[in-house]
């Protein structure tokens, strides 16, 4: 087999050395750096000619030692080395085109379990799977938010052969409850009806119908023969509508992110600082005055500069969260389209189109005509 790896051959001085070298020249064996010393003769050649050299050596009964000339080289210019390096580069590239794991990192194990089950039920993904068969980030986020209305956003990171889902819970909002049933539920906005959550009343519109502002969605008055019976209207009616928002924010922003929770042991007399903790372990009465074991929620502050490469990963989530905080409880944002963005003078400004799913039902207490 062809092998050009360089070798050094050393032969003890003998009267047959000169005929040996002449025979090698006659057989067209290339010899380089031939050195005659007092005790030995050395020269360089390649592994390709070693079998022929050994046959000649046996004829002249010489003692020969073989060394590799490239022992100290990191990369050797031989066939197997080049093939090995090619495989080292090709295998990671091929593996990077495959999704091996789908991980969910949430605040609680319960959310991780629910989100994982929903993800599997909707997309039926079995790893390993080619990246070409993975749905887009927008599709994954939209489907998960539709099923989990307690979430405001799902961060999706793809690193190598992993997909990491990081759900973010919606801010807690208190709802004012009233035991008094309304006469009707009217539409506060125009939109396409997606689903109902009705406890009392009669629907006056169907799913996928378009409702306009002021329309009666649910009636609390039901016709019974020639009479009208008041049963009251109570519930929620969700609809999709598009909301266009303009924004103008600095390109350099300060972000504060929550880090992983960790337990910390505080010894009184050594740790003097005040620690804000999430929860505290109950310790025996004799130990509690001296030691505290608390769970901390660390935060990390960092400076980030917005540019075009951070539109999907940072700018859109910031605008998503800002708009969501201004909307009523149980509202979700299904989709967002960046219409335009312009950088200049240390700011970025533009417009975003959001697809909102919101409860548009407004209870009306007084009797209203339909």
Structure notes:
There is one protein chain. This protein is an alpha+beta fold and 370 residues long. Among the domains are: 6-68, ACT domain (Alpha-Beta Plaits, 2-Layer Sandwich), CATH 3.30.70; 97-169, membrane protein fhac (Ubiquitin-like (UB roll)); 183-239, no CATH class; 261-297, no CATH class. It has helices spanning 17-26, 50-60, 79-95, 109-123, 137-147, 311-325, and strands spanning 6-12, 32-36, 40-46, 64-68, 98-99, 101-104, 129-130, 151-159, 162-169, 184-187, 191-200, 202-203, 210-211, 216-219, 221-224, 227-230, 234-250, 252-258, 262-267, 279-280, 291-296, 299-305, 332-344, 347-359, 361-364. A five-stranded antiparallel β-sheet has the order 13-11-17-24-23. It has a four-stranded antiparallel β-sheet with strand order 2-3-1-4, with no helix packed on it. Helix 1 runs antiparallel to helix 2 (50-60) and helix 4 (109-123) packs across helix 5. The longest helix is centred in the first third of the chain and has 17 residues, at 79-95. It is elongated and about 130 Å long. It starts with 5 loop residues before the first strand and ends in a 6-residue tail after the last strand.
């Amino acid at each position: 087999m062809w092998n050009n790896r360089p070798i050094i051959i050393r032969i003890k001085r003998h009267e047959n050395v000169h005929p040996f070298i002449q025979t090698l020249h006659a057989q067209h064996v290339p010899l380089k750096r031939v050195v005659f010393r007092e005790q030995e003769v050395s020269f360089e050649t390649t592994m390709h000619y070693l079998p022929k050299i050994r046959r000649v050596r046996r004829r002249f009964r010489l003692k020969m030692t073989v060394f590799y000339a490239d022992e100290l080289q990191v990369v050797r210019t031989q066939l197997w080395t080049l093939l090995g390096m090619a495989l080292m580069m090709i295998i990671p590239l091929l593996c990077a085109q495959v999704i091996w794991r789908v991980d969910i990192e949430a605040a609680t194990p319960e959310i991780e379990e629910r989100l994982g089950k929903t993800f599997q039920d909707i997309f039926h993904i079995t790893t390993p799977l080619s990246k070409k068969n993975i749905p887009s980030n927008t599709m994954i986020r939209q489907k998960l938010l539709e099923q989990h209305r307690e979430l405001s956003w799902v961060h999706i990171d793809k690193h190598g052969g992993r997909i990491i889902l990081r759900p973010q819970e919606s801010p807690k909002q208190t709802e004012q409850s009233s035991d008094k049933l309304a006469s009707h539920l009217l539409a506060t906005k125009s939109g396409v009806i997606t689903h109902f959550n009705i406890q009392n009343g009669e629907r006056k519109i169907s799913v996928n119908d378009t409702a306009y502002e002021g329309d009666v969605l649910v009636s609390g008055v039901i016709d019974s023969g020639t009479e009208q019976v008041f049963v009251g209207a109570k519930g929620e009616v969700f609809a999709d509508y598009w909301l266009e928002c303009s924004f103008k924010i600095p390109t350099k922003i300060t972000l504060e992110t929550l880090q992983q929770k960790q337990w910390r042991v505080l010894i009184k007399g050594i740790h003097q600082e005040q620690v804000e903790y999430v929860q505290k372990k109950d310790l025996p009465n004799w130990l509690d005055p001296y030691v505290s074991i608390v769970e901390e929620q660390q935060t990390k502050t960092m400076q980030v500069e917005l540019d075009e490469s951070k539109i999907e990963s940072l700018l859109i989530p910031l605008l998503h969260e800002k708009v969501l905080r201004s909307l009523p409880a149980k509202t979700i944002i299904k989709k967002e389209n960046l219409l335009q963005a312009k950088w200049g003078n240390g700011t970025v400004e533009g417009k975003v189109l959001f697809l909102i799913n919101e409860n548009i039902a407004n209870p009306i207490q007084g009797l209203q005509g339909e």
